[in-house]
Design goal:
Three copies of one chain form a homotrimer.
Chain A lengths: L1 E8 L3 E4 L6 E3 L26 H10 L3 E4 L23 E3 L4 E3 L5 H11 L2 E6 L6 H12 L5 H8 L10 E4 L14 H18 L4 E4 L12 H10 L5 E8 L6 H5 L1 H22 L7 E9 L27 H16 L4 E7 L8 E3 L5 E3 L3 H10 L3 E3 L2 E3 L2 E4 L2 E5 L1 E7 L6 E7 L6 E8 L4 E9 L19 E2 L3 E4 L2 E6 L3 E9 L1
Parallel strand pairs in A: 1-21, 3-4, 3-12, 4-7, 7-8, 8-9, 9-10, 10-11, 11-12
Antiparallel strand pairs in A: 1-16, 2-15, 5-6, 13-14, 15-19, 17-18, 19-20, 20-26, 21-25, 22-23, 22-26, 24-25
Helix pairs in contact in A: 3-4, 3-5, 5-6, 6-8, 8-9, 9-10
Protein name (chains A, B, C): non-reducing end alpha-L-arabinofuranosidase
Subunit structure (chains A, B, C): Homohexamer; trimer of dimers.
GO molecular function (chains A, B, C): alpha-L-arabinofuranosidase activity
Chain lengths: ~500, ~500, ~500
């Protein structure tokens, strides 16, 4: 049997875990909006057409901020199309996904939905077919109180109070050849700078994110980040990272090292951002926004990727997640927590139906995919300070990794409530692991809950008819004695131990 | 007396001659549209205002595809100005030609005219003052069946069926300082790429042509093609060539070597395109579109080039062609045929009145210029495969050429009908030439027709009152015996021999 | 006592002093327009709402041309917002100055005001958020007689005759990071070129000014001018210079050498422009337009620089000028006159309230600041040829200058009227200066007037209640005998001696 030992001391803090790390993403793509969060006529829909069953699952999932309206979609989107009387909104071709966009859902509907879901919005502006002036107009429409053309236009649409949207993405994946209006690093660095300036002059207190590489595997990765930040360093708060994990060969050990690859990705982007800071002797630190991340490799081609014949809200990117995907999602969240000093935002892509933790049937029920669970647990329990751990564990070799730790773990301690949660992923394919974890300088405490997510079939999924096949259960072997947590972790299991003051 | 010998074997094929090589060009320029193809109130005009006499001549001329609406004009053109109710169309300044544009003729009128003339359209989009998004809107207006804003706009204008326009030019002569919104090679390579992407996503099966140099004599020639294609190689099918032959010094021998210079131009652009392919190890071959070509040097300055006082449809570029121009036009067509593997489109610029094979008097008759004839003959007879010939002939020295062949010739064989046509230009200034040509592997055949275009006065022209001064006549000295064509070619004569299965 | 000797010979001419050197500037900024030149309801306002008291002072000040509508403002300005029925004009956020722009004053109102003030307009186009096409539309609106969309739009707004605006600035301070839509030198060189082309094709006889550096202290100064002109050399007539003098340390001697620094600035930009000309072996000479200049350092931060809470026409940049500022303004004017061969335009920034020679109280009176006087005197008297002088004077060391001449002087001779004016600034802090000046080859003449501007308190200002504390008085010690002017110049005094044929 394997054994691992962890020391977590409340005095050794990496940083508070930003609540924005538990964000998600709603794009006008497939059935994420239409038939996902919005389905007038659905049995559970409210007066706004928001599905109540989906809202309930979202509240359980616990996303803190939701990116909107894209993604690739935004690079061809005219925000004006989605506001004002619904019967006057134009129908458009969505070139990004080969779909027809009716624009029956837009900015104001999304803001209403955010209120209903108690979620903060993260908006992206279109830097594909448009530029700084249109972004400014949109921001004025959203955030300016009144008395000007665009502010009064919003008010005439029934929204007297400004939406006060704070977090904005300056375009989406502008380095990607697939992107409408893709840019060179210089082009993007320039347009991001000029757009950011106009936005900041329009509204106070904005958080602005520049596009990093659309993937760590892009040939221009690194050079892109450096040149973009060299232009817009003074104007932005975040650089984005996009990461989709793939498992085409169904090699679970290789797949699990995606977690370590993400760690490298985070480390590398941090280094690049700080290199740009160094060049200008600046103490400013650019933060990281992992504003698209998930497992995605099955529904990624052909008619699952792009509509044929310009359908409305076709079933696109409807990835069905299994047990092993849940392990990777959990592990990736721990990596973000362990980089809490720089990873200040992240968006699980996406929220409903489209590579999503929540699935629906249009006109039917909604249910939780496997990846729902580690995300919900992390959002619920990872509150407070991420602690800088000492971890002794074994290693394995797979993929790009020569010595990947068998135990992936993180401990978050909340100085306000005294709660401390240890998350633990045993990456051994076949061996149980004995875990001992010292929780130092947190006072006397007791185990409040212990959960385990495990399934002997790594390909087990949740479906409409079997929605809880993969779901957390009470941990069978866990105890807290004299500040030392002991537990036995099943091979390929995800575990969450919450402790509170005794 | 000179003698030349040709061997043409049906088994040695360069490539089929693309029908698009016999294209022409209608620009909003001078009297090409207004008073040319379109003149409501003219005695021969139909209900659409299309001149019937011009249409009849065009059917005889035989252009297969016609480029529209420019040319320099397109770089300042808003397509929306030319659609919808005519009385609501705005009057604009046409900066390219110093004219006032009434917009009474536009996209839909041109499509109606194409149908009437049985001609395929080749549209250019404005990449001077506009970009990818407007090009996409225009394409959606033209080609999308319905159900979206722009498709439904077209339908509301009375065009229920999509126009289904396949061939598109990505701007016009963007390297030229005279161009509205001229671009550097990088700027143009980028905008062409992003425009092509949006267009391809909007409509299937497009043929897209990027702008090459506006002339082989541009200082940036070569470097321009390389950098532009380095950006947009994956997105385009064609690179354009523009070639206007000049004869300011009236040196007929130098003028005739323009044909060989065109050969070099074609060879050079082919090499550049393949060099870009090589760099990316791509088997893709970019084809050549000679989408503007003609003799043009007389009506090229002052009030013949540009309107004064912003007139409507002034007489601009009304070049009057003579006998020697017809020889150059014929020879250039043979060069294109002999590069049938790469020259897949070409547009004689232009169609009516403006550097054109057809002239009209506004309110009066229409007639054929000298250059009408070789073009009409080539379009009619150059059907099928261009053959790779063995040619023995003499040479002469003039212009840039040390050893220009006295005989310029091409043979096209149609495997379907069995017809085979030999075109022959004798470039000797003063000597007759005995031609013998073996037509191998084509079976027993007979001479179906033989025509000669010749005039002792090289400056002879066709006019309203003498419209047939320069016109083909039956060849006086031609015979086909045992598969060997024999003929005597007059000095500075253009000859066409068609043979068919016996 | 110091002594200086000047020789001015009517045969040694630098160049005629361009009347455009005595330009000024009206920006939509603070109270320059609203509450400055335009205040409907003011006791002196005419039917157009133009303040009569301000107009009277402007006629006395004598600006010949006035730049409009910005400045930083123009880089976010849509000209369409400011034309047409006033009740339909949109209210906009002015991002440049944090103000709300009601657009009740716009292009046509400005043109009416220019007529009332007998001043030529100098318009700037927006190259921040817009480009060549919109600039062309605007120019067509202003200058095209009629028969096209934009010309007829102007006519529909009540302006049948074209405004015929000749002098245009291609954007404003496009190198400044503070500028809406700032540009790199390449970006700006390109957009300026393409904009200039479209403008020249639209309207004949334009004078076009490209943006030079927004200050000589910009890190890109020099490189900017070279690269910009390398692009647009053939298309423009002027390169702009902006110069604001500062005196944060209240060191009067250092402050006075700003005049010499301006001399260097002019010399340097001339050299750069001629270097670009040299590269293309061009005899063309780019002229200099000092289209923003003044003393400005007090009201340059915080709420004096930028509105808080988006006020309408807040009191911004309301610099109060004192005696020493007037000396610097006078000296700077002499430097421009002494470079009359290249400095062909200049705009004192600005005209009313905003870093301005004229102050008003909204609803109250208007008065002259100290700097009003040297400007008014120079505009009135510096007519004709600037003469190339021989000057013997002492020097002093301060700021960047090792040997700054104590006497700053210029002589302008009008061959038409025979008038000749000598301007003299004694920069000695504490010594009087005996001036002798030979006026050669001007015939017999007499002293027509002699004025002195001096105040023992260098910080003396003019206010609403004491509007004439600093004002010129008759010179106490001046005479003209046998063509030799003799005068005693007080320390830190500005002196103007006008002579006319006897």
């Amino acid at each position: 049997m394997l054994s691992s030992h962890v020391i977590a001391d409340a005095d050794f803090v990496i940083a508070p875990v930003a609540r924005h790390v538990f964000g998600s993403f709603v794009e006008h793509l497939g059935r994420c909006v239409y038939g996902g969060i919005y389905e007038p006529g659905h049995a559970t829909a409210d007066a706004n057409g928001f599905r109540g069953d989906v809202l309930a699952l979202i509240r359980e999932l616990g996303p803190t901020i939701v990116r909107y309206p894209g993604g690739n979609f935004v690079s061809g989107y005219d925000w004006e199309d989605g506001v004002g009387p619904k019967d006057q909104r134009p129908v458009r071709l969505d070139l990004a996904w080969g779909s027809t966009e009716t624009n029956q859902f837009g900015t104001n509907e999304f803001m209403d939905w955010c209120k209903a879901a108690d979620i903060e919005p993260m908006f992206a502006v279109n830097l594909g077919t448009r530029g700084a002036a249109e972004a400014q107009n949109f921001l004025e429409y959203c955030n300016h109180p009144g008395g000007t053309h665009y502010a009064d236009l919003r008010r005439s649409h029934g929204y007297e109070a400004p939406h006060d949207i704070k977090f904005w993405c300056l375009g989406n994946e502008m380095d990607g050849p697939w992107q409408t209006g893709a840019k060179t690093a210089e082009e993007y660095g320039r347009i991001a700078t000029e757009t950011a300036k106009m936005m900041r002059w329009t509204s106070d207190g904005l958080q602005l994110a520049a596009c990093g590489s659309s993937a760590r595997t892009m040939p221009s990765f690194g050079a892109w980040e450096y040149e973009v930040l060299d232009h817009c360093f003074e104007q932005v708060d975040y650089i984005s990272l996009h990461q989709y994990f793939e498992n085409h060969e169904h090699e679970v050990d290789r797949f699990l090292t995606a977690i370590d690859d993400l760690e490298s990705f985070i480390t590398e982007v941090t280094a690049i951002a700080d290199a740009v800071a160094a060049k200008r002797r600046s103490p400013k630190r650019i933060m990281l926004s992992l504003d698209e991340w998930n497992v995605w490799y099955r529904a990624r081609s052909g008619e699952q990727l792009r509509g044929v014949g310009w359908p409305e809200a076709p079933p696109l990117l409807e990835e069905i997640y299994n047990m092993e995907d849940a392990l990777v999602i959990g592990g990736a969240l721990l990596t973000m927590i362990n980089h809490a000093d720089r990873v200040k935002a992240a968006c699980l892509a996406q929220l409903v139906n489209v590579i999503a933790p929540i699935m629906t049937e249009t006109g039917g029920p909604a249910w939780r995919q496997t990846i729902f669970h580690p995300f919900a647990q992390a959002s619920r329990h990872a509150r407070g300070n991420a602690l800088r751990l000492k971890v002794d564990t074994g290693t394995f070799t797979a993929g790009n990794q020569q010595a990947a730790p068998l135990l992936v773990t993180a401990v978050v301690h909340d100085p306000d409530t005294g709660a401390a949660t240890l998350f633990a992923l045993n990456r051994s394919l076949d061996e149980e692991m004995t875990l001992t974890a010292e929780l130092r300088n947190m006072g006397t405490r007791r185990l409040a809950s212990a959960d385990e997510l495990h399934h002997r079939d790594l390909e087990a999924t949740n479906t409409k008819d079997a929605p809880d096949r993969v779901t957390p259960v009470a941990h069978p072997k866990a105890a807290l004695t004299d500040g030392v947590l002991t537990a036995t972790l099943k091979p390929l299991s995800w575990n969450v131990f919450t402790t509170i003051p005794a």
